[in-house]
Structures are given as structure tokens and as C-alpha cells.
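step 3/5: co-fold with zinc ion
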Amino acid sequence: MVTDKTILDQVKENIPVDEEESLVLNRDSSVGLVIVDVVNGFCTVGSGNMAPTKPNEQISKMVDESAKLAREFCHRKWPVFAFLDSHHPDIPEFPYPPHCIIGTDESNLVPALQWIESENCVTLRRKDCVNGFVGSMEKDGSNVFVDWVKEKQIKVIVVVGICTDICVFDFVGTALAARNHGVLPPLEDVVVYSHGCATFDLPLHVAKDIKGAQAHPQELMHHVGLYMAKGRGAKVVSEISFDP
Ligand SMILES: [Zn+2]
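step 4/5: write C-alpha cells
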């Protein structure tokens, strides 16, 4: 443990994230909330191959904060876009073990967020790949996420969900690239809320006994995910408040 802590401290010292303190939102913010994969298969203990095997503080906090933000947004009738990782049983997603199979509870929102399904301000998108931007593409070349930004005239997105360094980061990086490429108007800013994000925990001493598994220490990879998002141009904030 002492060694782990030292490594984490060293990483944080050498690649600091320097979170911006607080994001204050008001009715002129033109903001949308993007919730990435807060489904049972990634968040609920014992819910399949990629779910936590025991209660996990970072994941629980992420679920609480996502649900809290969703309440605030829906209360104000501000737009919310939720990705749900969902796979056809016959189409595996390399390199991951089977997870979030359509029709199972793994691919459904966690209990704390299920209520958003019946909210008018919420758009749900099932996706079968890590990258939500890619998973929003339709066969005709249109993109459900791009259309949502345009239709709701969203200038700022606040992103929460799991995993910080995988699905959240891939989506954020691609959204920023799309914005810079001029195909995501009128989007200006992508904000990652650090306490609203989490990643999974697979420490080295566990991973080394699993064939083909990569070690994935939770705190460290969460930090790296935030660092990478910031490096791509996202704003990383540790607090979000609402201006009445
Ligand atoms: Zn998946």
C-alpha cells in the first residue's frame, strides 16, 4: 500500500491535472449534461464480467453525483444525453469479455438513474463501442449526438460517467476533435466533472494472474483519464453549482 501511494503521489506530482475550481451554471449557459454508461454492467456489484466485485467508493460517488446532476438538469428542463453500453450477444467487443448484453439488466441504467428514462429532457442512446461519438453514428452518416447538440443549441457539455480513462475520455477527445474540425456547432466547451467520473479497479497483483489482462489501478487511471482529457482541451472541474 505504501508503495502504491508513493507511485500515485509521484504521478500526480509529475502530471498534475490542475482542476479548475468551480463551474457555475445559469439559464444562459446553454448547457447539456452527457452521462456515459452509468449502467449496471459497469457500476452495480456482481452485475457481470465488467462490474465491480465489491462495493467501490469511487464508483458509488460517481453514481451519486451523476444522479444529483441529472436531477438538477431535469428540474430546469435542460437537455440530458445518456449513453448506455449495449451489445448484441453474437457480436463481442474486442478486447473485452462479454458485457452489457442487450436485454439483460447489465445494459440498463443503474437504479439511481432509471427515472430519467421517462423524462422529456432526456435522450437515451444505446451504443456498442467504447467511443460514444462513434456509437452515435447512424448508417446514413448522421450522428445522433451531433444532431442533439445542434437541435438544443448546446454551447457547453458537462460529462460524467464511467470509465474516466476509457469511454469518458474517448468520447471527450472525439467531441473536442469534432468541435475543432467545425462539425459540432454551436459547441464551445467540454467540461469533465471529476467527482462525477470513475473507473474500474484491477490492481497489478490481481491482473498478473489473469491471462491477457492489463493492470488498471483505479486511482491512478482515473487521474490519467482526467489528465488526458485536459490535455485534449477539456475543462476539468471539481465542483458544479447552479446560479439561481
Ligand atoms: Zn461495451
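step 5/5: annotate
Residues 220 and 242 are 30 Å apart (CA to CA).
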